[in-house]
Amino acid sequence: MDLHHIRAEYSKQELSQRQCHANPIQQFEIWLNEAIKAEVCEPTAMNIATINAQGKPNSRVVLLKEVNSQGFVFFTNYHSQKGQALAHQPFAALNFFWAELERQVRIEGRVEKLSAQQSDDYFASRPYTSRIGAWASEQSAVISSKNVLLAKAAMIAAQHPLHVPRPAHWGGYLVIPEMIEFWQGRPSRLHDRIRYRFENDQWLKERLAP
After folding, report:
1. Helix, strand or coil, per DSSP, at residue 100
2. pLDDT 10s digits, 133-167
3. H helices within the chain, ranges in order?
4. Beta-carbon contacts of residue 13 (< 8 Å; ≥ 6 apart)
5. What is the pLDDT, as a whole number, of residue 11?
6. Which residues pair with 59 in a beta bridge?
């Protein structure tokens, strides 16, 4: 298989420092809204990379569930690989890629757990079957078969036919950004890259070479 000649020429839009909002989180919200309006595939899907106790990187795709003035929120099992990695090293890198708009956003920052109340509130808003799944799945653990998972889900559903409380091992994280980069594809691989760095209690904006 020859992959050398697989490439796309990006030319839909351009990005200048002048165009970008002074606050990168607000700029992200602008781009996210445009991705949603453009009906890109899974606009809230983001790759999150962490470092484990052995210093090895690991990445996976999760869904962004909230963006606010503090940062970016997602939810997961605290006992999962990412949960264990964040307990050891509370920093993460996020990446959004919206191919239809020829855009990506890179984010690096410190990670904090949400309060129990915040996690409770979101968990209660999830579909019933998703709440059951949070109890049934020992995320990242080896299981002997799919039937083990289905049997546990059935048992949990029998125990909680109406109200499903949030498991103590499941909840939310807030990624507090220290760096946010906006990437807009351009012709001849001369892409536009605008990076924000948080220094001395303010956001600094600069252009990067592609």
Report:
1. helix
2. 999 998 888 999 999 999 999 999 999 999 999 99
3. 24-37, 81-88, 116-125, 128-136, 146-159
4. 101, 102, 103, 184
5. 94
6. 49
